[in-house]
Every structure is written in C-alpha cells, then in structure tokens.
Amino acid sequence: MAGDDVHNPLLGKTTCGSLLLQLQKNWDEVGESDEERDKMLLQLEQECLNVYKRKVDQAAKSKAHLLQALTDAKLEFSNLLASLGEKSFNIPDKTSGTIKELLAAIAPALEQLWILKEERIKQFLDVQTQIQKICVEIAGSNDLAQSFKVDESDLSLKKLKEFHDRLQELQKEKSQRLTKVLEFINNVHGICGVLGIDFYSTIKDVHPSLTDATCAQSKSISNDTLARLAKTVTALKEVKEQRLHKHQDLAIQLHELWNLMDTSEEERRLFDHVTCNMSASVDDVTAPGALALYLIEQAEVEVERLDQLKASRMKEIATKRQMELEEIFARAHIQIDAKAANEKLLALIESGNVEPAELLADMDAQIVKAKEEALSRKDILDKVDKWMSAREEESWLEDYNRDENRYSGSRGAHLNLKRAEKARILVSKIPGLADTLVAKTRAWEEEHGMVFAYDGEPLLTMLDKYAVLRHEREEEKKRMRDQKKFNEQLNAEQEAMFGAKPSPLRSVSSLKKVLGPHMSGGPNGGPNRRLSMMQNGSRSVKRDNPRPVAPLNYVAISKMDATP
C-alpha cells in the first residue's frame, strides 16, 4: 500500500508512502529496534483507523442529515400543498438517485410553493385587514383593531374566496349603512332648516365625523351612530309636529280674529308665512325657517294684540253681527223687533256678565240658525217674488187696457204692445202659481208648526185676499161687459128711433150715470184702486228701508210669525 501511495499522483508530493520511507530512513539512522518499529507502526495504523472511523461517522451523520432534510422537504412540500390547496401543482417525479439529487429535484418546487405561500399570506392579510376594518367601523369601537396573524394552516383559494365573499357582504352592508346615514343626515338637515335650528351643532352631537361634507367614506356607520341618528330624527320630527300644530292653532286664531274685526288684506299678508300652512301636513312643510321659533313668538304676540283689540271693539263687532243677523231676517221677510234686540245686546255687553268670545259664538250660532231658516223659506219666497211680479204686470196690463190711445202710432207704442202680449201670458199663469204657493205654504206650516208670515202678514191671508180681490175684479169685468152690451143695444135702438148715432161724450156721460161713482175709475174709488193699493202695500213692506235683524235670543219676533 505504501508503494501505491508513493506512486499516486493525486496525493501530491507528500504522501503516506513518502512519509513512511522518511520514517524508516530516520529509524535506520537512529538504529531503532524492530520491536520499537513495529510498535510505532501499530500506533500509526491505529491512528489512521481512528481517522477513518471519524470520517465514516461524519459521513453517516451527513447522510442522516441529508435524509432528514429530504424527509423534511417532502413533508414540507406535502404540508404546503395541503395548506395552499394546490392539488394540481407539478410534483417532482424523480424517485431514484442520490440523496442530494433528490433534494436538488424537490428544491425548485418547494421554492415555488414558498413564494406562492408568501403571496397567499399577503392576500389573506389584505382581505382580513379590510374585513377587520369594516367590522371595527360597524362595531364603533377599537376593540377589534388588534394585531392578528393569518392562519397558515389553510391558505387555499377556497378559503380566500370565503374571505372575499365575507368582505363583499361587509362592503355591501357598509354601503347600505352609509346610505342610511346620509339619508338620516339629509332628514336632519331638512328638519333643522324648517325649524331654524343649527344643523352642524345638532349633527355633531351625534358623531363628529358626520360634519365632514368632503368625504362620505369617513362618516361613522356604527350601530350606535345609526341609533342616535334615528333618535335625533324622531325627536326633530316631534318638535316639527308640535310647532306645526302651534302654527296651525295660531293661524286659526288669527283668521277668526281677522274675520271678526274685518282686518285688511294688507295686514293679513304680514302673516302669510303662518297661515299658508294652516291645513298642511307635517311632510308638506319643507320651506327653510317655516317653523322657526321666532315666527311662532311673532304670531303669539299678534294674537295677544288682536285679543286686546277685540275686547275694546266688542260693541262694534257685536253690532256688526247683529246687523248681519237682521239682514238675513230682512231678506227672508221675517219681521222682528230690531230695536229691542239691539238694546238687550248692548245691555249684556255693558253688564260684563257674558264673555265676549261666548257672546260672539252664540251670535254666530244664531246666524247659522237664521240662515237655515231662511234657506227653508227660500223656495216659497222665490215663488212669492214671481207671484208679485206677475201681479205687477197684471196691474200694468189693466192700466194699459184702459188706455184708449194704446193703438195709436205714438212713439214706443209697439214696445207696449209686445209687453202686453207677454203680460197676458204671465197673468194667465197667476192662478196656478197662487195654488202652488198655497200648497207649499200649508206644507211648510205643517212641517214647522208655525205660520208662514211675509213681512209680518200671513202669506195664506195675503193669498186669500188676492183671491177675493181677483174674484171681485172678474165680477166687475163681467158687469162692465154686460153694461157695454146694454149700451150698445140702447144706442142701436136710439139710432133706429131717432136716425142718429149718439156722440161718444154723451155715451160716456150716460154710462157714468148708470154705473154710479163707485164703479168708475176715479181717483178715490173703483176696484183697480184697491188692487193697486194691495199690491203696493204688500210689496213695500221692509223693501225701501229694511231694518236690521237681531239674533234669535235677543229678538222679539212678531206674534204673527211665531204663532203656530
């Protein structure tokens, strides 16, 4: 072996064989014995054996380390595949060869998995961070804003998708919450504008982030913020409703006082901002400052001022109501004692025993009752007007028929002729109109249990008088027609006897002697005069100068109107 070492070119110049030759040379020169030489050679051999043993142990350990590394690499490869869920990843197919070759074959794939794992961890960290951020925003506290670690045991795409789905749900919920927050803010802004309340201080009390108008994403969307916003909106709506009711109450009072005192339109316009919402609902009132507190205070001051003014003008207002009531009775042709009613009303006001508001309310109730009574009489009164108009035409027609020059060619004669034709048609309807009036009047009296009086005289009595007068007139006309026939016959006999026709003047004179003064159309007698007096008398009552009518409680109605 020594010879082999000496000639081994790979060992260089200094080899074991050369060193052994030098050792032997030294022993020869020293003269060492063979025993010593064997002993030393045995020692050298033992030392060489120990060196080889150490090298073998080192090689075994290195092999074991490599085997463990290969096992760990395979295990890590499997774990990474399982963690990443990469079933389709390219697995090294080398199953034979040295340990280092196997390690070299698995190393690139393992490196790729490590890179993929780092990317996945970043993706998981990103999506989980966003999830945690939104959860913190929804929770409204920083308890969740703590550091967290990504669970590396499951980095699969399926798990990542679950996190992304969760993130999308949270983002959708965040968007919905943000929309709701903005809606609440708009409601608060609108109501604050209507109420004249500072919007920024109101919304800041809910959450400071809500005042930021530049970035909607920075606004708080927590449960607490939403709850406080909802509570704020509810409270503002209650205030708005209360103020609207107050406005409407004040508007009603203003209208009543204005109507009571005939306030001018110019003065009323000063409070249009109050009265314009008198019948509006809460949602209809959206104008800025429409329900501001100072406007309510102004309206309250005006109502108080008008109340004081009303007390000082009570007599004037009550007298006006009295006149309105009397006018209703006058138009309905109901006769009352207006003087007694006015005296009683003034006595009540001056005594102070009745509240002005109660007195006016009572008078308003009487006006309503009087209008109802006038309405119940309207149908009959309309027919009475037609009846009287027809009687006026009848009187004119009689005067027209007595006019001997009615057929002359004078100016306007054709107009009178046309009127006479119409008057005859109208007069022919009088009997039917009178009969209808009688029937309706009797039905009214039965329904109301009282006499229907027209300007103090029972209407049925007026109709009866007219019927009698009309009968007398018809009888008179019949007598006149008979007398005319007698005169014509007499004239004919005279003409036959004397041969001459009597003059018209003599005929008229003879007629007057025959009829007598009571049948002539003189100024102080005759049925036409009585008819005219009856017509003019019945039409003139309370026409030219109607007296005011008093309230029912304060009016002494004539006995004829009140008697059933």
For the sheet with most strands, the description reads: 2 strands, antiparallel
Radius of gyration: 64 Å
Q: How many β strands by DSSP?
A: 2
Give the neighbour order of strands across the main sheet: 1-2
Helices, by number, come to 19
Shape: rod-shaped
Fraction of residues in β-strands: under 5%
Low-confidence stretches: 1-11, 503-564
Average of per-residue pLDDT values: 79
**SSE-based structural type:** mainly alpha
- The string of secondary-structure elements, in order, is HHHHHHHHHHHHHHHEEHHHH
Straight-line N-to-C gap: 168 Å
Relative helix content:
over 70%
What does this molecule look like?
The chain is mainly alpha-helical. 73% of the residues lie in helices and 1% in strands. The chain has helices at residues 2-6, 16-30, 34-84, 99-139, 157-195, 199-206, 223-261, 265-269, 272-275, 293-312, 314-331, 338-351, 356-402, 413-428, 430-448, 459-498, 504-515, 527-540, 559-562; strands spanning 453-454, 457-458. It is rod-shaped, with a radius of gyration of 64 Å. Among the domains are: 184-312; 379-407 and 421-562, no CATH class. The longest helix is centred in the N-terminal third of the chain and has 51 residues, at 34-84. A hairpin with a 2-residue loop joins strand 1 and strand 2 (457-458). It contains 19 helices and 2 strands.
